[in-house]
Amino acid sequence: MFPGRKIRIARIFGIEIEINPTWLIIFLLVGYSLGETMRDASESTHPGRFPAGPWPWIFGFGTALIFFACLLAHELSHSYIARRNGVNIRRITLFLFGGVAEMSEDVSDPGIEFRMAVVGPLMTFFLTGVFYLIFRIIEANPNSSQTWLVPLYLLVYINLFVGVFNLLPGFPLDGGRIFRAILWKITGDVKMATRVASYCGEGIAVLMGALGAYLLFRDSLLSGVWLMLVAAFIFQLSRVSYRQTLFKLAIADKLVGDLALEEPPIIDDSATLAILANYFSVYNLPALPIVDGTGKILGFVSRDDLESVNPSERDLLSARRLISPLKEEHVIGFDMPLEQAIHRASRADQIFVIINGERVLGILSGDDLMRYAFDMART
User: Fold this and answer.
1) Which of 113, 119, 144, 223 has the most other CB atoms within 10 Å of its CB?
2) What CATH number has the domain bearing residue 353?
């Protein structure tokens, strides 16, 4: 959903924690903005609260780190409930507008969906309460350091806003997922529930965009632009999430063997690379399976590997020189659930060999697998 290189930063409870490079942008903006707020507070309403120099910005970036730790706790709470209910979470990615947990399979029960969705805002409100309690304790004790009062106040305010915002009934916000779970439970129709919740998400995004445009013309440039960006993101994500739901429903009971695969030619390992080049000119395949004299599959030669060999040398070299051994990660049984196979396609250029016993039914890349699946979902 969020393309681009990701940076792995931790592994918590067996879940990979990654950040998208866009997260660094928002971290710098939030940290600097909080630093500016603390400097202004120190100079006006709370004089002398911070030492002179860069300390307001040091506290600002420290507060930003704590805030993003709160977002991570929010996502981990979703993941905890998911795992308690048999739904595996592969990774959590922090990005420009927050965080998202990647599930290995979809939720199949509205009750589980409801519990997973509601626990996120509850965690955020719990953290809001913790920060508020610490704020009150420090404020009431004149002998304690008062330096953290402004950061704590900001953490209370920001987390409260995030919790309330997430409860808006628009998919894919947590409130939208709660709304979808309720509709799903009442009607028994997850497709209809997703459609209604997605429409609500788009409606909320339009209203937010209109408010952002209003603020823009009221000389609140930063607030207006930010609100419009968030609105555009929610609008797009609502549509994408709905399409993904339709796609997953369409392939829910399908097997890899149901795909309209192009059965590849079987090449003997003694064949020259020139012969392989001729086959590649006829078959639009990412690789060709290679067998030994007994018909046993040895591996495959990819189109990219062949093209790396000078054409003048291809008559002199056999397929054995370029064979990529057939490993377990490359093999997909024809009776594997299609959704499970798609989850294995972590890279677009990953090669998969579809087999039924000793028979090769197809050979395709991760991109090809997705294309075949989308073609089948549309029919």
Assistant:
1) 113
2) 3.10.580.10
Q: Are residues 262 and 242 in the same domain?
A: no
Which amino acid makes up residue 1?
A: M
Residue 354 and residue 126: Cα distance in Å, rounded? 49
In this structure, is residue 2 part of a structural domain? Answer: no
Judge if 234 and 294 occupy the same domain.
Answer: no
Distance CA 354, CA 286 (A): 13
Instruction: For residue 328, give the amino acid letter.
Output: E
Residue 1 lies in a domain: no
- Same domain? For 74 and 162 the reply is yes
In contact, 195 and 210? CB cutoff 8 Å: no
Place of tokens 């695969």: 261
Q: Is the domain of 181 the same as that of 240?
A: yes
Distances (CA, A) of 161 to 128, 280, 361: 10, 57, 54
Please name the helix (run of DSSP H) or strand (run of DSSP E) that holds residue 353, with its range, or none: strand 351-356
Domain count, the chain: 2
Binding residues are 74, 78, 174
- Put the strands of the sheet holding 331-333 in their side by side order: 331-333, 351-356, 359-365
* Domain boundary pick from 236, 251, 266: 251
Residue-range definition of the domain harbouring residue 310? 256-378
Token readout for 86 is 């048999």
**Out of 18, 43, 75, 263, which one is annotated catalytic?**
75
Let me know whether 219 and 365 are in one domain: no
Dist CA 281 CA 36 (whole Å): 62
Q: 187 with 47, same domain?
A: yes
Report d(CA 199, CA 178) in Å as an integer: 14
pTM for this predicted structure: 0.76
75 is catalytic: yes
Residues 51 and 145: beta-carbon distance below 8 Å:
no
Q: Assess whether 96 and 234 both reside in one domain.
A: yes
Contacts of 343 (CB under 8 A, 6+ apart): 104, 105
- What mean pLDDT comes out for the span 346-363? 74
Binding positions for Zn(2+): 74, 78, 174
Which residue among 234, 251, 268 closes a domain?
251
User: Mind listing the pLDDT tens digit for each residue in 65-110?
Assistant: 888 889 889 999 999 998 888 888 888 888 766 777 777 667 888 9
Run of H or E residues at 240: helix 221-251
